[in-house]
Design goal:
Layout (H helix, E strand, L loop, with lengths): L8 H38 L3 H10 L3 E6 L2 E6 L4
Antiparallel strand pairs: 1-2
Length: 80
């Protein structure tokens, strides 16, 4: 499909910056997930949080917490 679109310069600049903003947000989200993995792994060594993880996984829609040998991983669900 080919065509043209006319938009204001202000909206064009917003569109131009959108990719950079999305990339930054994605990087920050992944960094936060890694930090949460460390924190949850620490909690696992202090008390049994398995029931809480199971309940979270039942209710969460975009991610899942996986506990293996005292180490926690946060897995983001694939979008279809």
């Amino acid at each position: 499909m080919e065509g043209t679109v006319t938009i204001s310069l202000k909206n064009y600049k917003k569109l131009e910056n959108a990719q950079g903003n999305a990339t930054t947000m994605n990087e920050r989200t992944l960094q936060a997930a890694k930090e949460l993995e460390v924190f949850l792994s620490f909690l696992c060594t202090r008390e049994n949080i398995t029931p809480y993880i199971e309940e979270f996984n039942k209710q969460a829609g975009s991610s899942k917490i996986i506990l293996t040998d005292g180490r926690v991983k946060i897995k983001f669900n694939e979008k279809t």
